[in-house]
Specification:
It is built from 17 helices and no strands. By secondary structure, the chain is mainly alpha-helical.
Amino acid sequence: MTKTKDTFYSQIWKLVLPILIQNLLSSMVSSADTVMLSMVDQDYMSAVSLASQYANVLFSVFYGLGTGITMLCAQYYGKKDMNAINVVQGIAMRFSMVFCTAFALCAALIPRQMMWLFTKNERLIELGADYLRIVSISYFCWGIIEVYLSVLRSVERVAVCSVLNIMAFGLNVFLNAVLLFGWFGAPKLGVLGVAIATSASRVIELIGCFIVSARSKDAKLKLSYMFIKNKVLFKDFVRLSLPALGNDVVWGVAFSMYAAIIGNISDDAVAANAVAVVVRQFGTILCYGIASAGGILIGKIIGENNLEGAKEGARKMMKLTVISGIIGGLIVLAVSPAVVAYSAVKLTPTAQGYLKWMLLINSYYISGTAVNTSLIAGIFRAGGDSKFGFICDTIDMWCYAIPVGLLAAFVFKWPVMVVYFLLCTDEFVKWPWVIKHYKSGKWLNNITRDDWGTENRLEQSAE
């Protein structure tokens, strides 16, 4: 235990830094679309921002599956049981393919209806529908990529994940520029060009995953793992991972509902929120990095059956979380003047006014996000507790924030920024219950098994 205490900070930063790069690049991929489109047309930016809400929901699915994978794989990695990790990967892949297939079919076949949920502006619907039809191709690749990267992170191969993210980001930005601005004689395709760039970068990233797998001695990416049957680990995955998946889907869909509420009030608010979301993503990068790295490390410590070491690690992780929330808020405040000034090129004066207040609200909203994310998605899940977060976020967002937002917007018809402020109280409302659950210690469990019993079956099925 002394060794764990002495080395926790150094171990977590070894994981945080590569994950930080991954989160930064992930934010830059989505923000690159917004920033580059804002240089062309406000409607382009607004349409893609609304259409991307579906990608945000799908990302929530993948993040839920990924943290579910981490819950099991990090602890089994602590036990040095790679066979169990491969079985879990196959189970997660089956769930992932179901979701990404459903989203891809909807985006390809009914994109206009999907856009109609967010706006009644016909131009935004048409532009967003064109984007969704093309980007639907990327959803299949994305489902496989996220599962495999989650496995790599669970076995502490985060540097490889960073390389793959760098490659995807660089390609996406380059193709965006070529197809949006007509570089090298290419046609200026506008929204379609951004969609093609996104899909192409996902395909290349998937190819990169297979190359990494071919060179890996243990963490392999094999589609054949999807066909391995194991009732014990399947039940564990469903029991532990599906609440985490449900939690992140509830959270992701709720944020899309926030965007829908704002979108049905004002087109200027949609444009302002698109920029504010990008800035908030950069402000929360460190918070999410600590949550992911801490979850992996604490899960590994629990897998080694060092429960006291896990408690001490969680305590130190919370210190880092509070600091990261403060830093994130200061970053938002620091860049706000430049962001507002830059937005003046394409945003209307009304949208600029909204943006100024949205950035101010997000400067403190990040602190709430930091604490809740580290506890719910990091510490609790590392200890096998995914149900608490699911219940907590469902009640907080769907029984409090969304009803309050709907009443404020469409019944009382309060100003846009009042509605936005009320929606951004959700993280602080749940603080008392989340912190109380952390102090209770009920989240701390060793969820590994010595007798899952599929080593021989795994080897035969993989062949």
